[in-house]
């Protein structure tokens, strides 16, 4: 099964009452809340998501750090393209911008992020 959601911003409660199996994939369309703060809050979120019985294929949003800029991520081949994963959280998969993936016999082109309407505010106050 493939599920699609977006803009969780660190609130994963919509996932808690769903039943997944290890072959299911959740495609998270940006601003998941995995690499927002680059501190212990992100680590707690990663632990929560890693304990769900599902692969999370996350497409980078405009408010989270790019995984290629975080030294704990490594680039590997998956779904016919390159992805970023952390060994400690193997079911949290970050797509690489511009890659084309084959998931469940469907081709998926990934173009992460977008212009943020609150960009000036976020830059002024040091938010991602």
How would you characterize the overall build of this protein?
This protein is α/β, with parallel strands linked by helices. The chain has one domain (2-124). It has helices spanning 13-16, 40-50, 119-124, and strands at residues 2-5, 25-29, 55-59, 74-78, 81-86, 89-95, 100-103, 106-109. It has a six-stranded mixed β-sheet.
Q: Topology, please?
A:
Layout: E1 2-5, H1 13-16, E2 25-29, H2 40-50, E3 55-59, E4 74-78, E5 81-86, E6 89-95, E7 100-103, E8 106-109, H3 119-124
Parallel strand pairs: 1-2, 2-3, 3-6
Antiparallel strand pairs: 4-5, 5-6, 7-8
Based on the model shown, name its key terms.
128 residues, alpha/beta, six-stranded mixed beta sheet, two-stranded antiparallel sheet
Condensed summary:
The protein has 128 residues and is an alpha/beta fold. It contains three helices and eight strands, in the order E-H-E-H-E-E-E-E-E-E-H.
The whole-number mean of residue pLDDT values reads 90
Span between N and C termini? Answer: 32 Å
Anisotropy-based shape? globular
Backbone CA Rg: 14 Å
Oligomer: single chain
Quantity of strands, as a count:
8
Low-confidence stretches: none
The helix count comes to 3
Strand content: 25-35%
Main pleated sheet: 6 strands, mixed
Residues in helices, as a percent range:
10-25%
Helices and strands, in order, run as: EHEHEEEEEEH
Q: Could you say how many structural domains there are in total?
A: 1
Structural class: alpha/beta
């Amino acid at each position: 099964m493939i599920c699609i959601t977006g803009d969780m911003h660190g609130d994963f409660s919509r996932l808690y009452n769903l039943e997944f199996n290890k072959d299911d994939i959740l495609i998270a369309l940006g601003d998941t809340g995995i690499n927002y703060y680059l501190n212990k809050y992100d680590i707690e979120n990663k632990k929560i998501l890693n304990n769900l019985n599902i692969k999370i294929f996350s497409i980078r949003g405009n408010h989270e750090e790019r995984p290629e800029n975080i030294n704990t991520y490594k680039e590997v081949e998956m779904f016919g393209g390159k992805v970023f994963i952390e060994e400690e959280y193997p079911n949290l998969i970050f797509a690489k911008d511009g890659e084309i993936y084959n998931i469940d016999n469907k081709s998926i082109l990934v173009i992460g992020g977008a212009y943020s309407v609150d960009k000036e505010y976020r830059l002024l106050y040091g938010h991602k």
